[in-house]
Amino acid sequence: MVKKKSASSQHEKRIAANELFTLPLNEAQQRELRNLAALPDARIDYSDAPEVYVPASDVQRGCFYRPVKQLVSLRVDAEVLAWFRGRGISPG
Questions:
Q1: What's the total number of domains in the chain?
Q2: What is the C-alpha R_g of the chain?
Q3: Cα separation, 73 vs 50, whole angstroms
Q4: Do residues 33 and 25 touch, judged by C-beta distance below 8 A?
Q5: What is the DSSP letter of 41?
Q6: How far are the Cα atoms of 2, 18, 57, 88 from residue 84, in angstroms, in the given order?
Q7: Domain that holds residue 22
Q8: Which end of the chain is more exposed for a tag (fewer CB within 10 A), N or C?
């Protein structure tokens, strides 16, 4: 029997994104975050962050970028489709 060319590929083990892209904090980093969280706002040094002021005359309204969109056909897992539909997004 000839194998169908449209057969799905073998399933791979799923890994959560936070496991791929997030490294656990070491003790020194955790201690630094705790110290920063305990610091009152009045003691935060903003000297290296310049203040940004935009005059009201420079603000534009109604000038939004509208990207060109193209219709595509895409096959996704049922779980992915359910995730989109669960958030009110209808991908097709």
A1: 1
A2: 25
A3: 47
A4: yes
A5: G
A6: 36, 19, 40, 7
A7: 16-40
A8: N
- Give the model's confidence band at 2: pLDDT under 50 very low, under 70 low, under 90 confident, else very high: low
Calpha distance 88→82 (Å, rounded): 10
Q: Alpha helix (H) ranges present in the chain?
A: 17-21, 27-38, 78-86
pLDDT tens-digit series, residues 33-46: 899 899 898 888 88
Note whether residue 49 is domain-resident. Answer: no
Tokens of 7: 């057969």
**Residue 81: other Cβ atoms inside 10 A:** 15
Model pLDDT for residues 64-85, shown as the tens digit of each residue: 777 788 888 888 888 888 888 8
> What six digits make up the tokens of 50?
């310049």
Q: What are phi and psi of 10, to 5 degrees?
A: -65, 140
